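Fold it.
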Amino acid sequence: MAIKLHHGDLPADLKFGPVVAIDTETMGLNPHRDRLCLVQLSGGDGNAHLVQMPRGSCNATRLGALLADPDVLKLFHFGRFDIAVLEHALGVRCEPVYCTKIAAKLARTFTDKFGLKDLCRELLGIDLSKQQQTSDWGAEELSEEQLAYAAADVLHLHALKGKLDALLEREGRMELAQAAFRFLPARARLDLAGWPDVDIFAH
């Protein structure tokens, strides 16, 4: 496993496969207030690429092109937040997408534990540390512990997708999951537009 830190954008010669796992670290949970600090990516090869975003205007054109590429599936855990953050910060619509949290909620109705740590432990036998979750991601120099934590959030998503796809197929819910994934970018845009806590399908 290798963790590679990049500043401001992805390197021009970096290539990913058809599925890229993505996560973000921010200064808080309000995309309008709290800036994007770090974007983590993995092509499923055991390597993690971390892009540290500068304070102020983000001009990550290569990262933005990857996010908007219709031929690359963007793989998230709780993609609703990350998609909104990336669109607000970079001005790109992230599609198509897959969310392991949505997949888990549709396939694993026997439990109420859908966090990444829970899924990695139960489906992959991997115990993730969440000790750095609330650390200062806006720091100019990130610690080795922060980088390892951030990388872990994308390194296992491909394996989780494989396990969850099998469960969705077994339970006959793959078509429903795919419909939910297609709607997810619109749900993120509703969050950004001012409907974060409203069920627009309610009476």
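The chain has seven helices and six strands.
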